[in-house]
Specification:
Blueprint lengths: L18 H16 L13 E7 L4 E7 L14 E8 L1 E8 L4 E8 L3 E4 L5 E4 L6 E8 L4 E7 L5 E8 L7
Antiparallel strand pairs: 1-2, 2-8, 3-6, 3-8, 4-5, 4-7, 9-10
The protein binds fe (ii) ion.
């Protein structure tokens, strides 16, 4: 696997990244994945993920999703996040404060989305073919909380965990 520093996002961003920069970064690394510069594995029994780069300001993860593999309804603590789908297709179920309740969007190959602070979502591969995605978080992901949807559409936080090198997506 080739892992390189990713500080060359742009000269105006020596530190924490905002959503547009995070999305651009995941698109750029997704191009590298498509070019074969990063090994990708797909495991039928669990989601596979690999930390591609970390510099203290932003972490970049590569994730594969076999059919029906999903994250879990979660937030990203104080981190902003973004993802680009390299191949396949992912479905995101995200919580909307207004409603309240869940909204769903499809993220196709080549598309990127950003996650602002407080974004609560689940991500799943509902297709038969595997999906691959690149995710970036700034500041780096250190903790995540998990939720259940209440009958009234609100969220019930069920637990919080330090990430410690693991990832939910
Ligand atoms: Fe997430």
């Amino acid at each position: 696997m080739i892992t390189r520093p990713i500080r060359a996002v742009g000269p105006a961003h020596p530190g924490l990244l905002e959503l547009p920069e995070l999305r651009a970064l995941t698109r750029r690394i997704a191009d590298e994945v498509r070019a074969g510069r990063h090994e990708v594995q797909v495991h039928d029994d669990r989601r596979w993920y690999q930390l591609l780069s970390a510099d203290g300001y932003v972490d970049v993860w590569l994730i594969s999703w076999a059919r029906e593999q999903a994250a879990e309804l979660h937030d990203h603590a104080g981190s902003l996040g973004a993802l680009t789908v390299v191949s396949g297709e992912l479905t995101e179920h995200h919580w909307a404060r207004r409603g309240p309740g869940m909204r769903t969007r499809t993220i196709r190959a080549g598309r990127s989305v950003g996650f602002s602070a407080g974004h609560v979502h689940d991500v799943v591969n509902e297709r038969a073919t595997p999906a691959v995605s690149v995710h970036a978080y700034s500041p780096p992901l250190t903790a995540m909380s998990y939720y259940e949807l209440r009958p009234d559409g609100g969220l019930l936080r069920t637990r919080s965990e330090l990430t410690e090198g693991a990832l939910a997506g």
